[in-house]
User: Which sequence fits this backbone?
């Protein structure tokens, strides 16, 4: 039976990417596996450079002073690296949930951090708007999409200082003017590839302005000077990310995937809104196209509903404990068919109930 | 033609491991790929716990107060983490080459560091001996095997303070009393698996003794408290490491692989010593069983020799620029046949020359 993988991350990846990645584990270069060749060999250096170039091409950032890095340690390490590399006096953070809180916590180690706005009062079910960003701060930090609460920033503020964005869960999913941002980071394991690689896209001119000594592995400039190969990179995760970026480019890039993502999320939220058994969690204007969070109006139906979606081949639909209920993650590689299947199960529950 | 992969790392891995890893990329759990399931799902939590347990079992450290972690960032990140977690006043480092120097450099960010001994005077072609380790220091740090120079510590000092060892390039290759060490770390990409995972084995009681605030991702205690899942782990690299550890266990564990490694290195060094065209780089008593470094006595033969070994299917034999010449890396998964092939080529060169 076909699986419909709604996992929140790691999550569904394109089948053709999985096939090519598996082939490379067996034979990548003249009978040698991808994971047993030197990372300094030409075949792998080409992979790294191709992946870095595809990132800038897909984001429309070629020739605009940006460079891409593939690092390790996930977004959790970026919470620290951003502060180490950019925080001199004070930074402003937008608090939109769990991940923003973690970013704030790590930055606070180095200095006072100012929350420009927060939606904590409503358990993060909306995105704050109309806040001011003080122009004397070092940078402004926001989280573009909040997987746990199912909210997404639709507009980004006018920002008089460098804008840093954690795009872990919606990068490459929608068209934005990415040149508005000075530093974008993202764990690979949603729209880009397997866990184990972290993408950083940075406008070089914002670096080198803090007075602290930055440890080598935490220093963006060192990684840039070594073309993202200061130390041995996570070879498999970088290669598989490159394959996913190639898949996206061949599909028509971000405009094409955005259209598909809009179709999936429109279908999903329509069902949530018209089906009286379900209730959406996030404020309508801030609903994420990546993660739809919803609850059952009547918890007595939980067992029946859970059995039904599992029997339909659906996987990974349970909500995060901070919200409860359900979460349908609809990342780039999820087929529209999978959303149709879920929506049919929800309609069927309504007919039965 | 069969490939003989002498790469210094990433390097040769067992064929059966590569096959199982490739299979898991296609289908690991009920039709879902290893890299698209949640890391919090039971199948992956089992992988992580199995890998952590196998490490302690193979090293003979079960029930002795140690825990194993699979982190990201390579040994290069450990240079920093060791100092952040253990360095309060002063630490002693043994300087045996490039990697030791990098470890010293990162530790110096936090405090003064004392080199207990160094072999820099002879371009690191031997391991210093007979040095004192001051008992008032926080810890002693050494590098068990030096890939670039081809030296290996055969004895470890009596150490009155916690002993920290970078075993990136010879862990799981030979029998040692691993309980002499308080913290062992190793990038996976030699004897354990693909690049992208870093093993840390730590005696828990040495932690929590420094006064600084440690950032979350840099804090061993946080990773221990979260069972090596504080954030999304590098799923593929951890799984493939687990497969390699299972392969080693089925082979008979470290005693069995040590016997094979001895055979390979004895054969290799015998040829280097009896063949007048070649000269070993490292001091004989400190020769590494993992990386044999050697040069041609007459550089005019370089082109002929290079052509001959490449024609024999040999890969990755060029030496590091710090030493020049050649480096035959003979990690656990390299077959004795591969060393035989190289030795035959060296003998053939002698006959021809």
Assistant:
């Amino acid at each position: 039976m076909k699986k419909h993988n709604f996992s929140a991350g790691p999550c569904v990846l394109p089948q053709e990417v999985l096939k090519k990645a598996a082939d490379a584990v067996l034979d990548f270069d003249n009978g040698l596996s991808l994971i047993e060749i030197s990372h300094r060999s030409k075949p792998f250096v080409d992979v790294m450079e191709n992946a870095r170039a595809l990132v800038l091409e897909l984001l429309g950032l070629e020739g605009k002073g940006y460079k891409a890095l593939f690092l390790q340690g996930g977004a959790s390490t970026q919470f620290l690296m951003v502060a180490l590399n950019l925080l001199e006096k004070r930074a402003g953070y937008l608090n939109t949930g769990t991940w923003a809180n973690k970013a704030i916590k790590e930055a606070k180690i180095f200095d006072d951090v100012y929350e420009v706005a927060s939606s904590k009062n409503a358990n993060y079910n909306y995105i704050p708007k109309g806040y001011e960003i003080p122009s004397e701060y070092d940078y402004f930090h926001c989280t573009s999409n909040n997987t746990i609460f199912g909210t997404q920033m639709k507009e980004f503020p006018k920002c008089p200082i460098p804008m840093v964005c954690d795009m872990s869960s919606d990068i490459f999913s929608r068209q934005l003017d990415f040149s508005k941002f000075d530093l974008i980071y993202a764990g690979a394991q949603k729209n880009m590839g397997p866990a184990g690689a972290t993408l950083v896209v940075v406008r070089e001119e914002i670096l080198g302005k803090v007075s602290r000594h930055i440890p080598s592995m935490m220093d963006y400039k060192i990684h840039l000077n070594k073309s993202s190969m200061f130390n041995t990179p996570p070879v498999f995760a970088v290669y598989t990310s490159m394959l996913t970026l190639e898949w996206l480019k061949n599909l028509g890039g971000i405009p094409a995937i955005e259209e598909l993502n809009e179709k999936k999320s429109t279908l999903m939220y329509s069902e949530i809104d018209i089906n009286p058994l379900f209730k959406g969690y996030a404020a309508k204007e801030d609903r994420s196209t990546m993660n739809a969070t919803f609850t059952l109006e009547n918890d007595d139906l939980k067992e029946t509903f859970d059995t039904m979606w599992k029997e339909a081949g659906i996987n990974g639909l349970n909500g995060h404990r901070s919200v409860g209920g359900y979460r349908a993650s609809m990342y780039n590689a999820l087929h529209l068919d999978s959303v149709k299947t879920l929506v049919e199960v929800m309609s069927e529950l309504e007919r039965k109930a």
In short: Chain B has a mean pLDDT of 97.
